[in-house]
Amino acid sequence: MRRIAVVNMKGGVGKTTTAVHLAAGLARAGLRTLLVDADPQGNVAHVFGIAVGVSLTDLLTGDAEPEAVIVRGVRERLDVIPATPAAFTLETRLAGAPQRETILARRLKSLDGYDAVVIDSSPAMNLLTYNVLLYAHEVVIPVGMDSMAIIGARQTLDGIREIRELWPERPLDILAVLPTAVNVTTIATRAAFDALERDPSLSDRLYRRGVRQCIDVTYALAQRQTVWEYAPKSRAAEDFDALIGFVTGGTARDERTGDAAGEASQAVV
Ligand SMILES: Nc1ncnc2c1ncn2[C@@H]1O[C@H](COP(=O)(O)OP(=O)(O)OP(=O)(O)O)[C@@H](O)[C@H]1O
Ligand SMILES: [Mg+2]
Fold first, then answer.
1. Tell me: the pLDDT tens digits for 203-212?
2. Which of 7, 8, 15, 17 to mutate to test the pocket of ligand 1 (most atoms within 8 A of CB)?
3. 3-state secondary structure 205-247
């Protein structure tokens, strides 16, 4: 079972958009997929129009079993564990719990029947994010294409390094550093690409094709749809298709190359 976390300490970089499309895309590709919302903002439930009863909070406090918190059939082959703002209180509620960083891993230990679990996270290195990183085996780091992009990406890598040092036996691979809302005609995008390329720890994992800026993404989510449902011929649908191909191994793994970066570096020249 793949366990893919979507993480960046910086806010508004496209984490939820990526998690939703990664999960929905893997489900479309035939994988039985569970999308877990580990962000108290609860955006996943909003995107899919889920009326939340029990949630991730109940799972982590032990008040509900996984079967009870999973919302089934959100789409074909796609289930969801939603979050609500109640999760903001988890930090204090779990303060005295033993090994509180691995509660999610232990609560989902016997999870069965899925090919992939995708986890959305909040823009902070808090207890929930630790739990996410100690459950996941792979990480996607979406990076917004602005001048601050590199800072958030580096902070995220630092957090991952810390986890690796503290729990060296846990497998945690960086699947992709994913440029989001890419617009190669802007100076901001080109500068952000340059900065990512200059940092070996980021360029090494850079998925250069990225996801292009596309207003249909925002419209789709507002309509509680994925881009494949809302605008199947859009650039974003095409780019997320390519990303799913990359993640499922259809595209050679080491070929984290693509059009956007090439165009960006050409544009810089
Ligand atoms: N490819 C894209 N093209 C245009 N807009 C995009 C694209 N990807 C994401 N966005 C927009 O960027 C905004 C932020 O995206 P999103 O909510 O996914 O970020 P986030 O990292 O989850 O934020 P937070 O840190 O608050 O959880 C949204 O309005 C979304 O519609
Ligand atoms: Mg989000």
1. 999 999 999 9
2. 17
3. CECCCCCECCHHHHHHHHCCCCHHHHCCCCHHHHHHHHHHHHH
